Amino acid sequence: MLENFFKPARQAAPPGRDAFLAAGRLALAKHDYRVASRSFQDGLKAFPDDPDLWQGLAAAFLNGDRAQLLAHAAKALETNPRHVPTLLLLAEHEIDTEEYAAAADRLAEVLQINPRQPEALALQAVLAALRNDEAAAAAHRLQALATWQHNTNVDHLIGRKLSQKYRFADGATAQRRALELDPEFTPARIQLAEDLLRLGRESEGWVLAAKAHEDDAYDVTAFNLTTLHDRLGGFTTLSSPHFRLRMAAAEAPVYGDRALALLERAHARLTARYGLQLDEPVTVEIYPDPKDFAVRTFGMPGNPGYLGVCFGPVFTVNSPASSSANWESVLWHEFTHVITLTLTRNRMPRWLSEGISVYEEGQARPEWGRLMSLNYRDRILDGKLLPLSRMSAAFLQAKDGEDLQFAYYQSSLVVQYLVARHGFEKLAAVLRALGDGLQLNEALTREVAPIDELDGGFVRFARDEAEKLGGDFDLRRPETGGVRGWVARLHPRNYSLGLQEARDLMEKKDWAAARTRLTGLTAGGLYLPGDDNAYLLLARVCRELGDPAGEQAALTTIAGHEADELPAVTRLLELADRAQDWDAAVRWCEAWLAINPLAPTPWRALLAAHEHRGDRTAAVAAGRVLVRLDPPDAAAVHYRIACQVRPLDTEDARRHLLQALEEAPRFRATYEMLVSLPER
Question: Are residues 450 and 480 in the same domain?
């Protein structure tokens, strides 16, 4: 279509404006946003004042860079301030960013132009549904269908927006209504397939995805889903009482049981803590390929930066094969979402769900939590902290990765505030109220305190936390301009100046003086992550001075505060091995495996540590995983397993000895043990 019909029209002299528009809209319908963007941009070169082309270009960024969307939409409205497609697009954007009042005003503007505009009425139905006003939602839907009762776009639009708000069951219901009007309406079939897959209803979901791809081989989302389904054929499913864990067949024997054990601990702790019973097993999917994770999660590859995403009864995570995060904390975080989304029936803002998940990470293991950094402290004291009532904007208006990470931190700080000042039961009551249909501000006011009071209380709490962070250190940055920077440079206890002095001494290789300076910075227990971490410097200085005890102490502090600091963990394991401290070696092996269980080194060290500790069962378990990672000395590993398992199970020992001989037929010690075993 693009090549045979639209391309000649675009290349004609003069070019056909409708060809650019039709090609771009076709690409949008097929979810090919790159082709759509290119087509609209080409059209604007020939027709720079065309609002339809500007609106189409803006729409190409609805699932991408929202700043681009707003800029292109503004160009469309410059040309035509009453351009209905652009006003509708902006209303969608405002719904997505939870600016519901602005969206309502925008839709009212559209309805002044055309009181029967179906998409505007459908979006009014969405707004009513989001405030849990079912009667108003139904009334707006009927109004949207009044001019054409078989308009499938009405229910499709309603369902799509509800699903984007994680109301997948309601979204699926809307798509089924659209398909009742037209059983061959492919966009509704694709969206319904995604909704059902996110609800864990996989059999029907995959059938619908295959049917959609069969009907429309050019739709990107349908193609991606069917391709993913084929790849999932190589996955393994493990089960426990409360979970179904789907993961790559090569990874399942390595850490699948560890993952299930962790999830069961999370289930036991969090269901009891929140007073919730989950009626069905939770489906967890771990993807070694980030592209497959993105397709399963978002419908198409891209969207980097996500470690995991929870839909309610299903959550997906990236495998340790493609992530350097602590995968155990990620699983705990995502399962917490299962709890909160179930309690609220998926009726909660993202910031609150994320805040609780981050908070519960820290409650489970202190090193899993998020720490206040100097950057976060500066943002809080500079007035960049959002009040509780506007916390949704923290995620929705984040401009870069630092803003996004601060959004997570702010959200968790709100939860800390609510629990510290009002008690955990109040927080749980808010979640139950959301599930009953209250809006967040209503739930907070009813269960905790008036919103204005909470806004002020939270800001004071956050400022108190920021101001007490440094103890008697001055944490102002000397490079800051004005009076603040001048005062910082004069303060005798300025932390940043002390850290820079230590770096200067290290540059001069004056290790003893550097240790003295760094010891002063760390003596009070102040811990700052990132570039301001004095313990990282202290560990290096102690290593240069040949002080393993000092180095170990500094690195242990790091590992005790940040669970994904792999360099600290690997060095601690090395020190424990040298000291033949086998209990410490086990500890640091476990910490390494919580970050990367696919690395052979920690399994090898764990095997050795358990051998020295005399724990045969644990040694055998570590050895069996190690041989699955295809080590170069597989024969020796099989032999060591046989040595450990022989007193427990002679037949198992025999099997490992035979496997050792398969790898190394001249392995003499293996023959000697084999002939010493009792005959069968």
Answer: no
